Every structure is written in structure tokens, then in C-alpha cells.
Amino acid sequence: MSDTPKFEVPKFEVIDRRKLKKQEEEEQGSASQPAASTAEPEAAPAAVDAKASGAGPRLVANESKPDATSSDAQQNSVEAQPAPDMPPAPTAQESHDQKNAYDASAQRLEDLLRAQNPGMGKQPAVTFEHLVQQLYVSAMIQMGAGAQEGQRPQIDIVGARNTIDLIGVLAEKTKGNLSSQEDRTLQSVLFEVRMAFLDLTSMINMQSVTAPPPPPPGKR
What we know:
mainly alpha
């Protein structure tokens, strides 16, 4: 019988009835107050940011969107910047004004030349065929054409290859934008300079094969 009071501890009655019920009543009576108090710590960073930036209040849930937009705008501005070694592209108005100034200067030059040479007629306008022919002449001269009789031709095989590649790039980039006459001229020129390059490189290879081997070191 002496052990019975040990099991009837008042603590169990307080937790199961009065204290638990009291806590439930307090929680139900002040249900809105904890929600307001818990919302304040979340709104605090937005208020601090708004005060620091000088802007109006912002929601914490939308904090990531301005950051993403600003980062995208910053990335686009970096991509839009020209390369360090390239100047910015001229505007349409600048290109128009420069074209007019160039045409006026070229006309003054032609008038001066015709005044000094009355028999000289008006110079023809530069066309696409002039560009192709200029590249053709450059490539042929680099491959030794046009040398005077009795003189050894000066060959720039690397420069000739670069000029021929430029004609190839021109043919590729203007495909579908040329007249039939322009396309025929371009394709004919490209075929001729490539054939001349093949003939020249074959001759160089044959000379390198038939040339006597160099003497061994120390024996000359």
C-alpha cells in the first residue's frame, strides 16, 4: 500500500488536463498573433533592401526575379559590347553621311584629272566583275605571271593560296545573289586560278623530288 502514492503523481494530471487545455485555449485565442510575428522576420530583408536602394517596398518572394533580370541584362550588355580590337559599328546616319562625302570627294578628283587630261573620258563605275578580275590578277602575279622576259619570276605561293581562298569565300557568300553573267565570271576565274595553282605546286613537287640530296655534314 505504501507504493500507491508513487503512481499517483500530480504531474500526470496537470499535463493531461489542465495544462494541455490551457495551452490549447491560448493557441486558439492568439492564432493570428504568431502569424503576424512570424511574418515580420521574413519582411525585414525586403524593408532593408528597399531602404538601401531607395525604392519602394518589395515582396520577399519576388527577390529572385529582379536579380535574374539584372543578371540577364548585364550578360546581354557584355555580349553587345564590341571586341577590344574592333571599333563600334557606325550608325545608319553616319554611314549615309560618309558615303555622300566619299562620292563628292571622288567626283572632285575625277574632275581634276579630266581637267589635266582633256582627252580622258569619264571613268566607268566599279562593278562586281572588276572585283573578281582584280583578285584574279593578284593571284596570277603571286604565282609568277607577268614577269618580264629573261627575268626569274617571283612566286609567292602562300599569298597565291590566300588570294584563291578569298575568291572561294566570295563565291560561297554570294551564292544565289549574283546574275548569271556575274556567277559565270566568278566560277570561271576560280577554276582558272585553282588550275594554275595545281600546275605550279606539281612543278614544285617534281623539282623537290628530282633535286640531288644535300651532301652529308662535314663533306662539301
